[in-house]
Amino acid sequence: MFFIDVQGTLLSDTDKSLITGAKELISFLNEKNLAYVIVTNNTKKLDFLEHLRAKGLDIKDNAYIDPFVVLLSLLKPCKIAAFGSAEFKQSLEKLGFSLDYKEAKAVLVASFDGFLMDDFAAMIELAKSGVRVIALHETSIYKKNERLYPGVGAIMKMLEYASNASYEVVGKPSFAFYKRALELLKSQDKRANFENTLIISDDFRGDLVQAKAQGMQTALVLSGKISSTKNLDESKLDFVYPSVAEFLQNLKEK
Question: 2-66+173-253 falls under which CATH superfamily?
């Protein structure tokens, strides 16, 4: 049984094209009726599942989860201060949330490479005022245009240090997210649990470390933000593959 990351694992960080072996992996899992869930920290497109299918990934209906799914179970539509891309804010509005940076009931933070110091100042002020702070995920870094940018996890650590405020996480690697993903696995195979689930991702700190702490097996692919295991605690890794193509080959040989 498998949890499978998207960016850097199934899709290239460079041009968002399918990584070699991605389409074949999903097809093989479907053909063999093996339980899997696509676990993504997408915070831009509400129709991201359809976007992935349009690229050629034949993902089953009950095999996809993103932070929006968990967010709606924790926070009802209300006034929010949202920090992230325009697409992120538009998606929140489509879900029924309204943007209000003066009377916000919660602060929501997603990935964005255009943050200004004024944005961080606003986050700090809101956090210090006692407003609920929610990170859409806790990715440490992300890759864009061949450069590494601080992910939401890095930003939240800054905010926590600056404001002394706590925060919640709705995407990976939160327990709430993995618990909901496990429920989807169980809908496919009642035997599913964390111990018999392998998570495949390119994000060591943002996905795999906490997954390992929950009892999952972990597989790092070197096709995304990380190109080697240098300086990583390899005790947190059960497998390392150049990409999902090699993982699929190994799976077929079992």
Answer: HAD superfamily/HAD-like (3.40.50.1000)
